[in-house]
C-alpha cells in the first residue's frame, strides 16, 4: 500500500505549512502569509518563466492560504495554465484550485472549458476523470452549456473505462440538477437505465443516483428501471456474504448499493408485473429475516450496514403501504430496536415507527409499544431521542389511549427541554381537543397546560379553548368554575388571566350563585391580576369589566370607579385610555337594553381548520402531521378569535386585513385604517360584533360617544426609505445575491437572476427572533416615472412569520425602457404589538439587463467613434475608495453584466467592456472604458451609449463601485 | 425564456450538502461543499456544526437535525441533518436531507476513514494538514456531486496507488 509522507513532492509547501503551524499568534500568521503572498506574486510577475513544478507549488500554497480563510485575488491564470500540463500532479492542483476558488461567472470560464474539452477528448482515463470531477464540482451553467451534450456520450460509450463512467454519471447528475433544461436524455434513456445491469458494481452505484434523480422527474420514461432494480437487488440480497468480494463491507454484501436500489424503487408504486412483485416481496422478506439471524461480526460496522438496508427496506414497505404482513413484521422488528443498547437504533426505530403508525395496517401493532415509548420519553439522555418519542406518542394516539398519552406528555412538560416545549404544548392541545370525550377533561387539560408551560402556550392554543367553550354550552359552567379556581393561585400565568378574563366576562354568571364566587369576588380576583399584566391583557380585562356591568348590575359602581380612576382614564397607553373612556361612557349613558344588546354573549365561532394544527404543520413541515381533526365539525372548529376581530374590523372599516393572530378582542387590528371611518369604529367591534356595521353606526357614531377618541398613533403609511438604502442598493450593482438588509429583528436576503429584459428576484425574509411577526406585509412600488419603465409583479406573503422562520417572496421584473430610480420595497409587521415599518430600495438597476457583447478591437473602436456625440458620453474622474487590485476590478466589471474585452485597449492597464442593455422598447448598446491610475489612486470612467440617460446612469452606478 | 432554477430551490436536491472534517478546537481540516454558499455562509456553517457536534457524547446518537435561520440559504437547513462520527480528536461530518438514510451515511464516513487510514498508513490529523490536496482526491474518488461514487476500498486504493505513481 502506498505510504504518503509529509507533503512529499512539494518540500516548499511542507515548509510553509510548518511555518504557519509554528506561528504563535494570529498576527505572526498573517505576517508569514503576507510574506509568502509577496513572494508568490513576484514569482508570477517575474521575467523568468516558471516551470510546471514551481507553478504547481505556488498555486498549491495559494490554495492553502485560501483554505486558512484569507482572500486570494491572484493566481487564477497560473492555475488555469496548470490545466494544460501533461503531468497528472500539476493538472490535479490546477483543477483543485479551480474547483475550490473559481466561481462560475469568472471570465476564465472559457479558458477552463477549453482545457476540460481537451482532457475529455484525451482518451486518458485519469485526465478524463479530473475534468469530469471539475465539472461535477463547479457545475455552472456555462459548463452545462459546453458539456451537457458530450457527457451522455462518454457515459454510454462501449469503450469508456469503468471509473470514467462512474464520474460521467455523477457529473451528468450535477448538470441535470443545476440546468435541467440543458440535459436532454431522450435518446440515451434506455442505455442509461441499462447501466443497472453493468458488471461493475461501482458503475451501478454511481449510475443509480443519476437514474433515481431522472426517475423522480420523469417516472414514465424511466419505468423500465423497476424490474432491473428488483433483479439487481435480488441478486445482491441472495448472495452469500463473501460473493461480492470488493463490495462486501463487514460481511454485508453491497450495503450502499442495496440502499440506493431500495430508494430508487420508492420513486414508483408497487410493480404491476406479478413476477417482479413476487421477487421484490421475497427480497424484502429476506432482508427482514436476516435481521433476525445472529450477527456475522460483533463490529458495529456490520450491524450498521445491515440495518441501513433494513431501514431502507422498511421505508419501501411503508411507501407501498399495501402488504399488511410486511408492515407488521417491520413494526415488530422496530419494536425490538426500541430497547436496543445502541442509541442510534432506538432513535431510528422511533422515527421509523412514526410513519408506520399512520398506516391502518400497522397502527395497532405500533400501539402495543406504548409503555416502551413513554419510558423513552422519560429516560432517554439525548433530547433528540426524547423528541422522537414524543412524535411517536403523538402519532400513535387515538381514542383508546389519548388520556394516558396526554397525561404523560403533560407530566413530561414539567421538565421538558426548552427546545421542544412549544411543540409539545401544541401537540397536547391538539390531542386533547381531538380525543376529548367530555369537555371538562379538555378544559382541565388546557388549563393545566397553561399552568405548567404558560410561556409556551401560543395565542392559537388559548384562542382555541375559548372558542370551544363558547361553542359548547355544556362546558361553559365547568370552564368558568375551573378557571376561577385556577386564578386563585398566587402566581398565575398571564395566559391564564386572559382565558379567565374572557371566560368570566362571558360566563361568570354561571357560577355567580355561589357566594364564594359572587360577581364582586370574581371581579376583585380578576382585578388583582390587572396591574401585573401587559397592555393587551389589560385591554382584554377592561372589556371583561364592561361585560360584567351588563351581567351583574351590582358591580357597576365598583367598576365605573375603576374605569374612572386616573390610572385608567388617563393611562398613557392610548388603547387603554380609549377603552376606559368609552366603556365608562357606554355604561353611564346607554340604557340596559342597549347595554344588553351590545354586550351580548359572543356567538359561536365559525368552523374552520384548527389554527393549532396549521401551526404545528408549519413547524414540522407539511406531511409531518398525520392526525386530522376528524370530528371537528360537530364541535365547531377553532380559529383565532382574531379572525373574528379582523372580520369585524373589515366590516367596520372595509380596509383592514384579517390577521389570524390578532387577539380575541381584536386589539391588534384596532389601529384605525381608513380615515373615512370614525377611528373608534373598529375598537368596539368586539363588543358589537354580532350586530355588524349597522349597530356600530347606530350605537356609537350617532351618540357621538367616541368623538374624543385619539388619532392613530402608529402610521400605516409606508415609511420613507432608510437613509442607508442607497448604499445598500450600491452593494448589489455588481452582484445578484446576498443580504440586503439586517437589523435585530429581520434579515432580508436576495437571490436574483436576469435574462434579457426580464428578471426574477427571490426575497427571503428571516425572522431572527423567537417571536412571531404578525400582519407581515410587503409591497413593492415603482414611484413616479418608474411606473412606466418597469413592470414589477409580486405575490403577497403569508401574514404570519414564525419565530426563527423565513418566508420567501418572488418578484418578477420586466424592464420596459431604461430607468434611473429603483423600486421601493416596504415591509410592515407587528412585533410584540409594535408596528415595524421599513422601506428600502430594491436593488434593480439598469445594468442588470446587460447582455455581454464580445467584439474585436477594430469593432470596438469603430463603435466607440460612432458614439461620439457629446450627450452620448458620460465621464467621471474619481478617487479610488477601495484597493485597485486587478482581479477585484475585473470581477466587478463582469458583475456589472458587460463583457470584459481583452487586448482591445492599447494600454494593458485599462479595461474596456461592452454590452447591450435589453429593454422591451429598445436595445441600448453600451461601451465602457475604465482607466485606473495607480499612482494617483484615481480612476477615469467613460461610458458611451446610444442613449444619454443610460450613459449617465451606468456611469453613476459604476463610479460608486471602485 | 426559461429561468435557471436557483440551486437551493430545486428539489430533489443534492444528497450530501457538505462534508466537514474538524478537530475539537474547531479547526477545519477538510471542507467539501456540494452546494454554492458564499464565504460568510460557509464560515457560519462551520461554526454551527462545530457547536452542535462537540457538545455531544458517546451516549448521544450520531445524528443531529439542524435548524439554522441566520443566513440566507441556511434556512433550508432546518430540514437537514448532520451525520457525524468522532475519530480521536477529529469530527467527520456529513450534512444530508432529513429523509436520507442515516446509517448508510454513517458507514459511508467510516468507509472513507478506513481508506484514509490505509492510504496514509495510520492516518493522523497532521496527514490531513500537510496533504490537504490529496485528501480532496480521495474524497472525489468516493463522493462526487454529493453522491456516493465508489464504495469498494480495494478499488479506491488501487486507483489512488495508480495516481500516486504518476507523481
From TrEMBL, chain A:
Biased composition (Low complexity): 647-661
Disordered: annotated span: 623-661, 695-724
All residue ranges annotated as the Clathrin adaptor alpha/beta/gamma-adaptin appendage Ig-like subdomain domain in the record: 730-843
Membrane topology summary: Peripheral membrane protein
Alphabetic keyword roster: Cell membrane, Coated pit, Endocytosis, Membrane, Protein transport, Transport
Entry binding sites for a 1,2-diacyl-sn-glycero-3-phospho-(1D-myo-inositol-3,4,5-trisphosphate): 11-12, 43, 53, 57-61
Subunit structure: Adaptor protein complex 2 (AP-2) is a heterotetramer composed of two large adaptins (alpha-type subunit AP2A1 or AP2A2 and beta-type subunit AP2B1), a medium adaptin (mu-type subunit AP2M1) and a small adaptin (sigma-type subunit AP2S1).
Name the record gives this protein: AP-2 complex subunit alpha
Organism of derivation: Oncorhynchus kisutch
Lineage of the organism: Eukaryota, Metazoa, Chordata, Craniata, Vertebrata
Automatic annotation (TrEMBL), chain B:
Keyword annotations of the record: Cell membrane, Coated pit, Endocytosis, Membrane, Protein transport, Transport
Pfam family, one: Clat_adaptor_s
UniProt GO BP: clathrin-dependent endocytosis; intracellular protein transport
Annotated localization: Cell membrane; Membrane, Coated pit
Main location: membrane
GO molecular function list: clathrin adaptor activity
Topology relative to the membrane: Peripheral membrane protein
Domain of life: Eukaryota
PROSITE patterns the record matches: CLAT_ADAPTOR_S (PS00989)
InterPro entries associated with the record: AP_complex_ssu (IPR016635), AP_mu_sigma_su (IPR022775), APS2 (IPR027156), Clathrin_sm-chain_CS (IPR000804), Longin-like_dom_sf (IPR011012)
Domain AP complex mu/sigma subunit as annotated: residue spans: 15-166
Annotated GO CC locations: AP-2 adaptor complex
Complex and partners: Adaptor protein complex 2 (AP-2) is a heterotetramer composed of two large adaptins (alpha-type subunit AP2A1 or AP2A2 and beta-type subunit AP2B1), a medium adaptin (mu-type subunit AP2M1) and a small adaptin (sigma-type subunit AP2S1). Interacts with CCDC32; the interaction is direct and mediates association of CCDC32 with adaptor protein complex 2 (AP-2).
Family: Belongs to the adaptor complexes small subunit family.
Name of the protein this chain belongs to: AP complex subunit sigma
Organism: Oncorhynchus kisutch (Coho salmon)
